[in-house]
Amino acid sequence: MADALSVIPASVLRNLSDKLYEKRKNAALEVEGIVKQLASSGDHEKISAVINLLTTEFTYSPQANHRKGGLIGLAAATVGLTSEAAQHLEQIVPPVLNSFSDQDSRVRYYACEALYNIAKVVRGDFIIFFNQIFDALCKLSADSDANVQSAAHLLDRLVKDIVTESDQFSIEEFIPLLRERMNVLNPYVRQFLVGWITVLDSVPDIDMLGFLPDFLDGLFNMLSDSSHEIRQQADSALSEFLQEIKNSPSVDYGRMAEILVQRAASPDEFTRLTAITWINEFVKLGGDQLVPYYADILGAILPCISDKEEKIRVVARETNEELRAIKADPAEAFDVGAILSIARRQLLSEWEATRIEALHWISTLLNRHRAEVLCFLNDIFDTLLKALSDSSDEVVLLVLDIHACIAQDPLHFRQLVVFLVHNFRVDHSLLERRGALIIRRLCVLLDAERVYRELSTILEGEADLDFACIMVQALNLILLTSAELSELRELLKKSLVNAAGKDLFVSLYASWCHSPMAIISLCLLAQTYQHASAVIQSLVEEDINVKFLVQLDKLVRLLETPIFAYLRLQLLEPGRYIWLLKLLYGLLMLLPQQSAAFKILQTRLKTVPSYSFNGDQLKRTSSGNPYTQILHHSGSQITEDGDISQDNGNLQNGINFALRLQQFEQMQQQHRLLAKSQAQLRNSSSSLSKEGQKALTRRPPTSDTSRPPSRSSRKGPGQLQL
Length: 722
Description:
Structural class: mainly alpha
CATH superfamily of the domain at 1-168: Leucine-rich Repeat Variant
Number of helices: 36
Shape: rod-shaped
Main location: membrane
Strand order of the largest sheet: 1-2
Pfam family, one: Vac14_Fab1_bd
CATH topology of the domain at 1-168: Leucine-rich Repeat Variant
Protein name: ARM repeat superfamily protein isoform 1
Radius of gyration: 47 Å
Distance between the termini: 123 Å
Organism: Theobroma cacao
Helix content: 55-70%
Strand content: under 5%
Subcellular location: Endomembrane system
């Protein structure tokens, strides 16, 4: 201290702390001259003493003017040292950096000015303090004083120039500092950081691309900034890095893929678009490096396929197709289970397009890696089954395609059909809305006969008789009307002459017994008219209810469709198809005369030629009503229409019709008992309800109102008071 005081005049020290800037400036020039003389004589001890005096007595002084003088004095001393300043930087720079956090904005301003002048002198030697200077500048970029910000920007530009020309800059030491600050929200700091990233990336000797995963998330975070300028700067930096990735032979795709996947789910539209664009490029460029990340990438793509922004949807679809086109091998870290897990989760998405693409992925995996997919079947099977209730027809059809692929295994086929029946049982509206679509599609994919046989087997033992009746009626309507089941209908038409047709008829008959009209329809298809007539004769009063008449109305209308053209043509030969006529007249007798169905069927029967039923010759009947002649022939030994012969014990092509009729009657008896118990339950509930209302509205007796009723006069539970 004494050495410094002996070197610097007291007047200079006094002026260095003066409140007037000009006096401080002149004093600093004198300090510069003094230091320059000491440097030329090589007296570095006195130079150190001068610097120490400026630091302790001025820059750390409680007086603001002293601190200002100390800062300008340190800068002047550095200028005086010129090329020898490097050896004194350890003394000079720390007190200046400390002043960046001074409470007085003018002190902070002079600190920027001082460091600027110091940096101009020492240039590259300045790099050893880079991290501390960067940290200080980062804070000053958001300073509350505009003058300080302006000074900091000037200093920042100079530091960037020094760094770009220096070969001593360590990017490895700088990156942790950058990473810490990337999530700062202050817009000035964000501009400052993006500026540094852009500058460093422009230096050929600095490999910023190699460290991109360390600050990529921060850059993406800036894309949603409220400032358009910051968003633009961040986007520009990201675009430059993406171009470098395309041109680089070695890129760490994995770490960045994790970041992009998260950012693809950002609530900010621009961030999502940028992230999905990057993912698109990564899928094209990444190759084997991305295989372990396929599931995560798919998890990001699928929701974006249903994004509200069209640009995002387009890029997401393109990326999805690119990813699905890559034929990765499970032996090469391709995780089939992880992909299936993502697809299963996305099947629960509220967006139809996402659910559809998830199903396409499951289908693709089944085709390419069937064995691996079946290993994870327990994880996805329930979700696939529930998807059959989806609100979208396209989704349901795709799910059915997948189920059909899985159901090549008999066990899974049985599971599928059982679950379908279960779903229809618990949700009758599903049967009404989607039943025909599901059944028809399964018949196309899995063979109609196989599907109908399995359904019949399940429904034969169905405990819920009401549901069984509804389900059978639905299946019967599909059988009668669907183009997909035309071969099945043709097979049933041969039930009396073909073993396969007979076997199918018997198989369906067991469950069709739940519905009289379904049995009659089945017999019409199989051309077992005599048996159908017997079924009609077996019906009792309870069977002919509103539901029955509604089904009968549907059947009569179906008789006029092309499906039953063969039947109408058979009416041209009334003598040969006597049981068909008896059957149709039987149906007519069950219909109310004022109903539309009655008039339709009556009109059709009036067109039947009234020929004699004698096979030797044709003659007109006097009454014009062949039904009288049907009754005349009722004693003949007739098996089925088209074959009048001797009695064969109710057997036709191996079908025991007597046993079938017994089977039908037993099933209908169960339905009658159920209907009776339900009616009794309803009546009981109704009676209790009415009695309760009467008890509430009954007035007290007019006499002996003051006397309470005796205990013996009170009625017990269930006893009615008269």
